[in-house]
Write a structure and sequence with these properties.
Number of domains: 2
CATH architecture of the largest domain: 3-Layer(aba) Sandwich
Strand content: 15-25%
Number of helices: 16
CATH topology of the largest domain: Aldehyde Dehydrogenase, Chain A, domain 1
Shape: globular
Number of strands: 19
Largest sheet: 7 strands, mixed
CATH class of the largest domain: Alpha Beta
Structural class: alpha/beta
Strand order of the largest sheet: 14-15-16-13-12-17-18
CATH superfamily of the largest domain: Aldehyde Dehydrogenase, Chain A, domain 1
């Protein structure tokens, strides 16, 4: 589709910002709304229901009723599978609409909304649907006088609070295993990107998911999000977002009913390139492409690049040659690879970090300024700092923008020491032709995922999550069922 055609479709798009509770679109009980504007050009997309505690109460009541009467949990796994697969099929049938909503709502290039976000969300929902009738329960090895069954049961009412950087994908990672296991779900999307979540709920109902099983309450974290975390009738909460908010979620879970609380939080991932890297061009391409993908708004972005001192100059020369390829463009142009920052507040945050990097003495080699100033949207040029040390804020704190910090190291022990000197532990990478070094380094790095001679290798079959203040629990893979199911032992005495 041409850029003009995408803009024409955007202009004709009708936005329904009502919440989705009990199978119906409804405005907030308070009648409050919030303005939904596009970071692409700053124009108003529409108004969205500003849900609060009263709406959360209604959504929880609908979810609880659906769970207790077993309209979904009581269906055979094969039946839930068929509905989930149809749900995935319908997502793909609405691919252009969902991709356009995603791009308009949070600014990512339509190229990636189409090729990454929509198919990844559909694949996630399909995969968990396919998996649910292939998970077996267990019989414990007890004496002949007893029979002990170990079975998985849905935990009940699950609240999912997701961020704005990958709205559909993050929602799918939470709702797919929770729904497949038989739970009822309440999704709270970010107020910065609520539109695809609301549309997904309608599509799920069309696919045959019973009313009340999947609800969506848009709103602010301090209102709708806090109400979910504190609710006495929510059994489990899955959260993806900042570390500071994750700590609040855990506190609220403890203050209320000790609900399960799973958090996937921030990151400051280390990308280590050794002098014996087997393919320097590939390492450069991965380093640059991974940090600027999605405008740098990725929790796993390799924002700390450690390069062995003996090859750093050569590496930087190659890297700087690639940076212009990521100049921000019109997100509705299918040639654009870097789009808009999600909103003015996030742009101010990123620009603040860039200024701190300059003031701290880091050498700015590229970017560092706003871009596309006449667009009405929010754009930052891809930014690269050299001569960074671990004490600088740009090396310590999650920026969530297109900013790369380059640090030097002398040997692999030095690299690991620097890489681990962070409160985060989401992802990391090492590039080396020495297999023993790669394995030892991977073992030494404190991260939920370690890449070797690549970055961003990914599949729904592998778990995603972090250690330290990057959170707990795992999204994706069969391990995600551990978050949304309870193990029950049934002990039967024989004779």
């Amino acid at each position: 589709m041409t850029t003009t055609q995408w803009h024409q479709r955007a202009a004709a798009l009708g936005i329904d910002g009502r919440a989705f509770i009990g199978g119906e679109r409804v405005w907030a009980r308070s009648e409050r709304q919030f303005d939904n504007r596009s970071p692409v050009d700053g124009r108003q997309l529409g108004f969205v229901a500003r849900c609060d505690g009263a709406d959360v109460d209604a959504a929880v009541a609908a979810a609880r009723a659906a769970f207790e009467d077993r309209r979904w949990a009581g269906q055979a796994p094969a039946a839930r599978k068929r509905t989930m697969i149809k749900f995935a099929d319908l997502i793909l049938a609405h691919a252009d609409e969902l991709a356009l909503l995603e791009t308009l709502d949070m600014g990512k290039p339509i190229k990636y909304s189409q090729s990454v976000d929509v198919p990844a969300a559909a694949n996630c929902i399909r995969w968990y649907g396919e998996a649910v009738d292939k998970i077996y329960d267990q019989i414990a090895p007890t004496a002949d006088t007893s029979l002990a069954l170990v079975t998985r049961e849905p935990v009940g009412v699950v609240a999912a609070i997701v961020p704005w950087n990958y709205p559909m994908i993050m929602a799918a990672w939470k709702i797919a295993p929770a729904l497949a296991a038989g739970n009822s779900v309440i999704l709270k999307p970010s107020e910065k990107s609520p539109l695809t979540a609301l549309r997904l709920a309608e599509i799920a109902l069309e696919a045959g998911l019973p009313a009340g099983v999947f609800n969506v309450v848009p709103g602010y974290g301090a209102e709708a999000g806090a109400a979910l975390a504190l609710h006495m009738d929510v059994d489990c909460i899955g959260f993806t977002g900042s570390t500071n908010v994750g700590k609040q979620i855990l506190q609220m879970a403890g203050q209320s009913n000790l609900k399960r609380a799973w958090t996937e939080l921030g990151g400051k991932s280390a990308n280590i390139v050794c002098a014996d890297c087997p393919d320097l061009d590939a390492a450069v391409s991965a380093a640059i492409g991974s940090i600027y993908f999605n405008q740098g708004e990725s929790c796993n972005a390799p924002s700390r690049l450690f390069v062995e001192a003996s090859i750093k100059d050569a590496f930087l020369e190659k890297a700087l040659a690639l940076v212009p390829d990521f100049a921000p463009g019109d997100p509705l142009d299918e040639a654009t690879v870097m789009g808009a920052i999600v909103d003015a507040a996030q742009m101010k945050t990123v620009m603040g970090y860039i200024e701190q990097g300059k003031q701290a003495g880091a050498r700015l080699l590229a970017g560092g300024a706003a871009a596309r100033l006449d667009s009405g949207g929010f754009y930052i040029a891809p930014t690269l700092f050299d001569r960074v040390d671990g004490s600088m804020s740009i090396a310590r704190e999650e920026i969530f923008g297109p900013v790369l910090s380059v640090l030097a190291f002398t040997d692999i022990d030095d690299a690991v020491r620097q890489a681990n000197a962070t409160r985060y532990g989401l992802q990391a990478a090492v590039w080396t032709a020495d297999l023993s070094k790669a394995i030892k380094t991977a073992r030494a790095l404190r991260a939920g995922t370690v890449h070797v001679n690549q970055y961003d290798g990914d599949d729904i079959t592998v778990p995603f999550g972090g250690v330290k203040q990057s959170g707990n629990g795992r999204d994706k893979s069969l391990h995600a069922f551990d978050k949304y199911t309870e193990l029950k032992t049934t002990w039967i005495q024989i004779g």
